[in-house]
Amino acid sequence: MTSEQVLDEILPGLADDFEAGNRNFRGIKPSSADDFEPLRECLAVLIAEGSLLDYQKTATYQFTPAGYVKYKPRIDALRALPRLPQSNTTAQTEVALADPKDIEEQRKRQIVREVLASRFDDSDKSLFQFIYDNGEISVKALAQTQKFGPNLYAVLDRAVRANLLKKQVREGHTIYSINPQLKSALGFVITEGKEPL
Q: In this structure, are 11 and 77 located in the same domain?
């Protein structure tokens, strides 16, 4: 097995413990002598990147919160995909690795939908659409359009706190843009249900 295949084997169990609130550490041992080196490499990477804790170097492990968040899309993909026969482990790994981006994008769309529904009016979507269409825009230019009403500044502040918008000050001008990590999800959500032009 490769270290990627080993990772696919250990992630679901670590996630099960984390999701159950089980603060015990999980023992992880190679299933064969051939798996020792890929497992060692995989665990070393997880520990070095801060995704896994090794309890007092006893070969017992648990996810850190950051590790769980980082690998959640891959874990979801592994849980959703049927397991292929061992003779086709390369294809299994390739399929498992292909899906997390789609799952992550769906998760981001759901987050954006929930944030928009709970913190913003339907009329605020036009502000997000305007910023999305312009890439980045100064607060002065937004105010001059007179399209967004007296609550413009409050909506912008809420959007920055909700991490939908990024705020920068350049050469004395306050510039707003869509958070690049949520740009495609926000673009999708704000155009949902609209008739194509």
A: yes
Domain count across the chain: 2
91 and 36, same domain (yes or no) = yes
pLDDT in 10s for each residue of the chain, 197 residues: 787 888 888 888 888 888 888 677 788 888 788 888 888 898 889 989 998 888 777 778 888 899 999 999 988 888 886 555 444 444 444 434 444 566 678 878 888 888 888 888 877 888 888 888 888 888 888 888 877 777 888 889 988 988 889 999 988 889 999 988 888 888 888 887 554 44
Q: Is the residue at 169 inside a domain?
A: yes
Question: Which CATH number does the domain housing residue 185 bear?
Answer: 1.10.10.10
At 73, give phi and psi (nearest 5°).
-60, -40
Residues 75 and 131 in one domain: no
In the chain, the N- to C-terminal Cα span, in Å, equals 51
pTM of the model: 0.47
- Return the ∠ at Cα 7 (arms to 5 and 13), rounded to 5°: 120
Q: Within this chain, do residues 79 and 134 fall inside the same structural domain, yes or no? A: no
| DSSP codes of every residue in 70-106 | HHHHHHHHHHHSPPPPGGGHHHHHHHHHHSHHHHHHH
